[in-house]
Design brief:
seven-stranded antiparallel sheet, single chain, DOMON domain-containing protein, 12 strands, alpha+beta, 27% helix, 2 domains, Immunoglobulin-like, 2 helices
């Protein structure tokens, strides 16, 4: 009887040990698999952010900004720098009627939401001596070109336009800097920004046609929404943001979070793994 009991307990013990060993292997395999996924996602983000070079010939839109206070007037401004790379300029004419525009808006998360927009246009006349850009303070209107504000509060600072021939194509890089006050005093057409807050924003880009701002198109590379972290006054240096990888990073961040939660569950409830 004692021998039978001992053998039964021994079998149970070995069965328990085998189960524990099996659970341990599954746990280690799960952790290893999740680690590989996280490692892959990190490398994908790095590749996405740094491999969008001129040779890719894809649109790549970026925005940067910081807050500062004018020494003379004491008024606080946000300085924006918008850039777009690898724009196909092959079909542009040199009469100033074609070109490209880039824009950004705050206070809405859709193109039809009445966003406080600034659109900066480049009118093409020459590869060797490009025109400076100009910026228009406007308000977003559904299915129409943004309507210029009665009072223009977007202040053009500088622009850079460069060209490069690739095979039979002509490509263009465009960058523009402009200022806009946190609070312009225009209570009906401009959005009041508070340092340190967050606000919905939109971005867009498109061709200039017949000297006017053309339709930005419906693809994800031509317009989108984002969240603007309003900089504090006196921030040093630009806050970086790029339109195309912004959505990509958001998706990957969500997947990363899901993987982390799964890992926590595995570690906390490994006794339920069969």
């Amino acid at each position: 009887m004692l021998l039978t009991t001992w053998m039964s307990e021994t079998k149970k013990s070995k069965s328990f040990e085998n189960k524990q060993s099996h659970q341990g292997r599954l746990q280690r395999a799960s952790i290893f698999g999740l680690s590989l996924i996280l490692l892959y996602l990190n490398s994908t983000v790095a590749q996405y952010e740094y491999n969008n070079t001129y040779a890719d010939m894809n649109y790549y839109y970026t925005g940067e900004w910081y807050g500062y206070q004018d020494d003379l007037t004491g008024q606080a401004f946000i300085r924006y720098r918008l850039s777009v790379y690898n724009v196909d300029a092959t079909a542009w004419t040199t009469d100033g009627l074609s070109g490209y525009w880039i824009g950004i808006g705050v206070g809405a998360y859709t193109m039809a939401g009445g966003a406080d927009m600034t659109s900066c246009l480049y009118s093409h006349i020459s590869i060797e001596d490009p025109n400076p850009m100009y910026c228009i303070d406007s308000i977003g209107i559904e299915q129409k070109r943004p309507k210029p504000d009665t009072i223009q509060d977007s202040i053009f600072v500088d622009s850079t336009v460069t060209f490069k021939n690739v095979s039979t194509k002509l490509f263009c890089n465009i960058s523009v800097i402009f200022d806009k006050a946190y609070q312009t005093g225009d209570t009906t057409q401009d959005y009041k920004l508070t340092p340190g807050s967050g606000v919905d924003g939109i971005w867009a880009q498109g061709q200039v046609s017949k000297g006017l701002q053309g339709y930005h198109g419906s693809t994800g590379s031509s317009r989108g929404a984002f969240r603007l972290d309003v900089p504090d006054i006196g921030d040093s240096g630009y806050t970086d943001w790029d339109a195309e990888s912004n959505a990509q990073r958001s998706i990957q961040w969500g997947v990363k979070q899901a993987c982390i939660y799964a890992l926590v569950i595995i570690l906390s409830f490994n006794q339920f793994i069969i």
